Amino acid sequence: MKNVKLKGKQFRHMHWVYPMAFLCLFSSPSWAAESLVSPSGAEQSKGILVKGTVFDEDKLPIIGANIMVKGTSLGTITDMDGNFNLTVPYEDAVLTVSFIGYTTKDIPLKGQRQLNITLVEDSKTLQEVVVIGYGSQKKTTLTGSVASVNVKELSQSPSANITNALAGRLPGLTVTQFGGGEPGKDVASFAVRGLSSYNSGAQSPIVIVDGVERSLSNLDPNEIETFSILKDASATAVYGIRGANGVVIVTTKRGISQSKPTVEFKAQVGMAEPVSYPDYLGSADYARLYNQALKNDNPGWEDDPAVQSRLYSDEMIANWARAKGDNTDGLGYNIDLFDYAFRPAIQQNYTLSLRGGSERARYFAMIGYFNQDGNYRYSDLNDAYSTNGGFKRYNLRTSLDVDITKNFYVSVNLGGQITDMNESGGGSGNIIFTANTTPPIYPVVLERNGHPSNETYYTDHPSGLLFGNSQYTKNILGEIAYMGYKTTHKINFQGNFIIGHKLDFITTLIPQHFSLTLFIIS
């Protein structure tokens, strides 16, 4: 292979070129050259082989450029020398050539078999403004390592907490969730470029919202304008040692100069449930394996009556194999506790915003409502309260910017959240533990057996007694419905008043300003 001079921007993509090439070699048949599908969907008996090379403006080959037959799923990528081979279904096909940082190009073949394609850098991408530690810069003049995410992607995510919506959206950002996933508790922790300290309290990056260190958890994605992460030393230098683990900078939405008032309403309604539940064995299989384990642990079990008395009989195992599961047929229980205890829940999110401005004043206002129900069944057996998980959040965000003169301005900002959370008194950990450890052969509720000593209990539990024994003391219905409940109510508001003066007359390269800020935090 000949030597290729690689530009800096090409070198940075070397890490994912090889995996992409591997995927193309071993992907589904729709990518293979033999699967020839025309835009009309008709199969062709044989295709046309097209070869070519993709260059940049300096005539250097581009590694990993995408070449697709427009209107089909046929495609390939360029190799280390920028070359590609692609079988197209017809002579008049159009090739779409694309690469990150370059303008996508459509190439009509018109019978050509050999192509030399030149891609032009996307100037719009380079002119994008990125928020940094001391203001904002265009990507063309940015030297530090800064990553930004498209805020529209965050607002489209159905996650209850914005920290969960960040997973997989930014390079160098590791997102993990340990909160349990209950409504109001599904907060994820995140680290920039891995963990740099063994101190659990000093591993997370600092979060700056509108210039002030604040929590990111309860922000509504619809009130965010930009979301950036400063990763390397040059980008985080302004924050000193506090920026050692990276810096997350969030700016909220503001009014737009000389813009008509715009009212926007968004509504999202969906169902929330776990991706999957554990798939445990039924009662018959459990009994067979229990017998086998007991025999393995007790050599000579054939002559030990104590061991034999603990074994399940063949008749019991046969009955469990044929049982409906609820013992209405008299063959025993075969209960899936996850199916018994959990159900899908409704999740809702509504936002209403007003945005606009004149030449001298700009304004933005938004209110939001988020509601997430819990996933427990049988949580409403008590008329006085519910033991189901639940989370409600009310968001408020307003901002007003007024230019007193050309360089003198005043800004007023107010934002906050009101949250209400409800959860089972026993905690989700006990509920999950009970569902994971209780064998399917045992019932949840015992039917009324008419014994006089039990009659007093039926007064409080007319539907039956909760099952339990010396080994399995926790009952999943008792953990959900009869352990009480806990509620948490929080109010959090932040506001600031800014008086500032632009200092562009001192330095014109980077706009600077002097401001006096008064904070109101509750």
Verbal overview:
The protein is α+β, with helices and mostly antiparallel strands. The chain has 4 domains: 116 residues, Immunoglobulin-like, CATH 2.60.40; 126 residues, TonB-dependent receptor, plug domain (Ferric Hydroxamate Uptake Protein, Chain A, domain 1, Beta Complex), CATH 2.170.130.10; 129 residues; 88 residues, no CATH class. Helices cover 17% and strands 34% of the residues. The protein has 13 helices and 25 strands. Strands 17-18-19-20-21-24-25 form a 7-stranded antiparallel sheet. A 5-stranded mixed sheet has the order 10-15-16-13-14, with no helix packed on it. β5 and β6 form a beta hairpin. α7 runs antiparallel to α9. The chain starts with 7 loop residues before the first helix and ends with a strand. The N terminus is likely disordered.
> What radius of gyration results from the CA coordinates?
32 Å
Assess the beta-strand content as a share of residues.
Answer: 25-35%
Summed up, the helix count is 13
Looking across the biggest beta sheet, what order are the strands in? 17-18-19-20-21-24-25
Distance between the termini: 65 Å
Structural class of the secondary elements? alpha+beta
